[in-house]
Design brief:
Chain lengths: ~270, ~270
Amino acid sequence: MKTPVSTSATLKAAAPDLIPPRKYKQYAGWLVLIAVLIACSIRTEVTPYQLITGLPQMGSLLREMFPPDWSYLSTIWGPMMETVQIAILGTTLGGLLAIPVALLCASNLAISRYVSLPARMILNLIRTIPDLLFAAIFVAVFGIGPFAGMLALVFFSFGIIAKLTFEAIEAIDPGPLEAMTAVGANRMQLIMFGVVPQALPYFMSYLLYTFEVNVRAAAVLGLVGAGGIGLLLDRALGLFRYDRASVIILLTLVIVLVIDYGSTIIRRKLL
Amino acid sequence: MKNMTSPLSGKPSGSVIGSRIRFALITLFIIAVYYWSVQGMQFEGIQGTAGTVSRSILQGFLHPDWSFVYIAEGEDLLRGLLDTLVISILGTVVAAVVCIPFAFWASTNMSRQLAVSGSGKIVLSVIRVFPEIIVAILFIKAVGPGSFAGVLALGIHSVGMLGKLYAETIESIDRGPQEALIASGANRLQVLRYAVLPQVIPQFLSYSLYRFEINIRSATTLGLVGAGGIGTPLIFALQVRNWNRVGIILLGIIVLIILTDLVSGWVRRRII
């Protein structure tokens, strides 16, 4: 404690401008944060005391989950694979839809600002809606089943991939584009031979990243009736079969880890 | 994928036939994966009611139920949104505090043995893998439905992600101040207070705000499974097909998310 104080005292004597400014603003910021937290905890009646008393309940739930009911594994394998299928199709279709929109949004390719700015606004709007909300709406339209889940993931991945890809397109090297414009290439040729070779690795990488996100999302889509493993998890928890729920959660963990691992390796090779 | 392999085949060391075989194998594998996934997707066809349902949804979205925005005595839109905001603030703060020890545990430059930081990294990634909705369901079973379960779910799930980002921040700090303090005889606590914390706190705050933006999106869905917030009236409105109400709730969610993004972006610029 002492060292810095004496340092600042000597500093003050030597060079007054080197003294850091007083930190009233910073203190005010922390005070505001603490006030907000107290208000929040009054509003939801969530207190540190409740946090501590809640933990033993969590422990007893975990005890009920073990040992897992391994015989249930054969029943859940099919829905688990359905989950992966939903994620694959949702990501692919969302990615395909994202390509033209990303080309429209990128400022270095845009036809005019009157096209790219509204397109970006729509993208931002789509990204504010969480995947589970999409799923709940599509279940209402198309009925319960994996198709609604797939559609939800199509919209969800479309928002992510289009945004990441148009930013990647904006960051590409303009040299080849200028060279091609100079020799008279039209817009299609410009995109095919100037943009695609540079942006494709990024696009593939984002596609895989979104796939990782979507596998996790697909695992819970069933909770609102949109197919996949979530439906069985909901049922197991509703019947208080925590031993079955733990098998479902463990299998989901394994599948997610395997897919993450594979996708990370491929992505490292792409970029 | 097809176009991806073609630049690889141009590399001087690989033989042409080898790369062609690889290309064919990759293509076959991808076709098989897609065949398998399309097979699994039993498409029952669009229901006969889909047309009328879509029309009524559109009608509902175009004529939101404005009376739901504020109801003096009961559950209305503003209270739901406030709950969602509060859940995500509390969840983020819980995570931002809880993950600090995890982050120091998992960062390679804070411990001498690699086993220590390695085990910390594994713990963080295991926490990260659980989707927050599943965490929320478990907490609902443990502590009952309501905002508390939502706060815990967001808090636990965010620890995994924030801990990783924090650990990376700690790993990237400048070692100079630390070495200078050790050389002048500071103990470990003093090194932490005067060399490490001043370097990492702004970045920690920035990551926490970023996490807050994600958490508020998740908090809107937590209510769908019963963990409090705006999701609860939304799922009721969806179940009774009250599209005007769904419309106003979605509108409210979009406005809330855009506003919090703006505020958090402003605060983040002030911090860094």
